[in-house]
Please model this.
Amino acid sequence: MLKFLRRFLKEPEEDEQVRLQEKFAHFRRLLDNNNQALETMADMEEKLSGDYVFDSSYLYSQVDNLGEQVSGMVASLNLLTRNRYQSDLIPICQNIVAEIREILEAVPGIPDTPYILPLSALSQDLAPAVGGKMANLGEIGNRIGLPVPQGFAITAAAYKRFLEFSSLAQDLGAVLSQADIQDLDSLKTISRELQAMVRLAPLPPDLEEALLQLGRSLPTPWLAVRSSAVGEDTEFSFAGQFATLLNVHADHLPGHYKEIVASKFTSRAIFYWKYQQFSVNALPMAVGVLAMVPARASGVMFSLDPHAPQDNTVMINGVWGLGQYAVDGAVSPDLFLVSRRDPYPVIQRRVAHKPVALVCRPDGGVEEVALDPEQAQAPCLTDDQIQTLAEIALELEEHFGQPQDIEWTVGEAGNIIILQSRPLRLSAPAFAKEARPPAPEPLAPPLLHHGVRAVGGVAAGRVHRFRHDDEVNQIPPGAVVVARQPSARLVLVMDRIAAIITEVGSPTGHMSILAREFRVPTLVEVGGATTVLQPGQLVTVDADAALIYPGIMAELLQRRTKPDEEWRNDPVYLKLRRLLKLISPLNLLDPESPEFKAANCRTLHDLTRFCHEKAMDAMFIPDLDKALDSSRISRLKTDLPLNLFILDLGGGLKVSGQDQVTEDDVLSRPFQALLRGFHHPGVTWAGQVAPDLKGFISVFANTMYDMGKAERGLGGKSFAIITPNYLNFNSRLGYHFGIVDAYISEEKNDNYISFQFKGGAANIDRRERRAKLLKQILDDLGFSAHTRGDLVQGRLVKLSLLETEQTMELTGLLMAFCRQLDLALASDAVMDRVLAAFKNEDYSLKCLRPQEAAAG
Amino acid sequence: MQEDKMPERILVVDDEPNMLRLLKTILMDKTGYEVTTTNNPLEVSKLLQESHYDLVITDLKMPLVDGIDLIGIVKNIDAAMPIIVITAYGTIETAEEAIQKGAYDFITKPFRKETILITIKRALEWKRMQGELAELKKQ
Model:
């Protein structure tokens, strides 16, 4: 009875072939998604190089794509494995995608601080609370110790509280969403309307009280009130047009504060908020309140003359009275060019005729006054003041690590006060500039005096030995990173390390390109660096002259440059970097390891790797016994050193139900062609590819670890899924990954060959070189091919049966030919030789041994 | 032939402020061009009337006034003004429409820094040649 019931309830017998075909369809989808996901990742990583311009919609669309591709893989894997990974993989994938979306959508929060912070408590790290302008001024006063006015900052937290308390946040949002903007005039009308709303809104009583009290606590009741919006310098190009109120009275500070907040609602800002949704957190307005300095003279200076940086001078512009006239050009200012070398002589002075000045009115506000002719003609600064200003400019440059644009004023007592300092943008020096000759008198003999400059500059720091990509997080800030071989992964720390030295590599390598964008002084081909330089040792790297000194060479260091401002401050770029940390690192490196499990997937890359591996297992391993029972999977008996399994979906083999088949049994046209290519008499399968001596030694020295893996991988499996016209060939040899997917028939329009190759045991330079080589060959064969990193993909479509078949044969030949070539491609010259050999139909790789080739 | 030593002036229009900041930084870093930016396409005609520009670079997809509309607005003010349109990936049809409406060229986001620098250079050269041609015809 029970037996009967069991048989009755049992699912009907599935047709094994239908089931396999469905399975194959899921597998195909998974493979497609895998390819697309890897391509998306490579595309995003490529954007880290700094060579690209992209916006946040790029990030959104790529994250969407990746989310679909990877969750699609997870879904296919579950379909393939009867939901074996349902309970663990799906939530892991969802969590990673959710974390990524959180980063993507994050609007920077407003730090929870008191309403008011005294200037004496400010430093650069408080920029998110008080805006860059006030944070910098605090840094100048407190950390550098230069004179700045007394004052305080009204924080972003106060702004947020104001907008929430007065329900302005809601009201402004409502007005913006209903606003009917047709032209510039309607925009201006709304701008005025919103500004009026801000002026009328009540301040929280405790904020109002604090403003009155603190405003009156300054040494003078006359104040300068200026905007210091958070993110003004980085995210919002329409910022920097906000109000500054000069010489206003402390009794009315609450009103002045609202005036500055109102100035945030310019036409441009409104346009932005109307269409990007108004958020109280975007561009929060912090405000600086400073004791007004009744200025005798004021102006701006650049610590390095941007028009002629090679002249090495400080450029000072000054006028009588308040500085506004020096900035807006109301009066042509005095110009002083001062040498940047002690004792700072004035190299050039141009004293202008300055008939008027802007000064503080005794009853508040500012006014223009006429100057007597004598003063109008006189320089507004004494030589002592000029010299002091130059010294200050250099001190600020030294502290902030790059040339500065500085606002200064001279008080009535002749004392100099700094009002603002910010980075000065200089044109980038040309990359191909001649290497500078070494310093005439090095203070100590260099430790190393060879290498190839990848990125110029000078830097000092403690040596940190970098051994493996996984250890990138262990690199301390300010380190001189010393490694055997270049690693593009160093990009993750390039904003905080001092220099990079590698024993091999090239200035056009991936890492070098990245280092260049970050302006990290970098030397490659520094043989012996990992033995000569001791971990923890202090060294100075002069990348321009390819010299590495023991200790700190102060004189050389004066030319130190910081990472490229353009990228360091770009929020979209920084967001991409944060996103990629959850996307591209690969933690699941070895499928044989017990750690290779779903629970250890921490990135999308891990997920793709895991799904792909498990899908191939699911296609072949668990079903192997069953399939052998049902005569579906056969092993190919061949003299090729390949562990090759065949799944015939019907008609691809002459025979069925055999454990082993021979090549003669193969009917699949594309597979036949591929095997013909593998068997090309010119190809040597036996033995190692012997690279040239130099290349071999450096490969051997630097990829020992990976070589081991490559060896082990030679026993890896290859799978061919076939029909009479179709082939999906998946070959995994250690770190190499080759896929050929093809359809060959009489119907020209259906014909295609897709080819993909990735990975390898050698370093990324060599792998990329192989990718380049393959691309060139594929192009020659008529493929449309492209590379991304070490991944090369090509596709050829709609050729005739004969042409497609011939190309398929060459594709097989190419796979055999290039199988270990990455180890040998030590330079572009070697690559060119190999390319030439392939074109000459010499597949022996004798070209790697020039003497032999010449002798033969 | 007259050598114009004045730096060439470029107006960049994009509704994403960060994109403007980035483009401006790149152009200022790598070239001698003068760059004005706005996130507000409504401002463009005012800006063009207020001062002289040699080139307009505009995003295609913007609220209220899109890049296609903007081409008409710019051409009405200065028919000889070269316009470079920035399009998102996968919107090639709109890019072609922009060219038909008189844009000089289009460039697809994301793009290489070098690509935009080269496109700008070509556009400015084209403008100079157009100017010289017009001069020759007058003679």
User: Anything to note?
Assistant: The first helix of chain B runs from residue 17 to 30. Residues 9-138 of chain B form a domain with the Rossmann fold fold (CATH 3.40.50.2300).
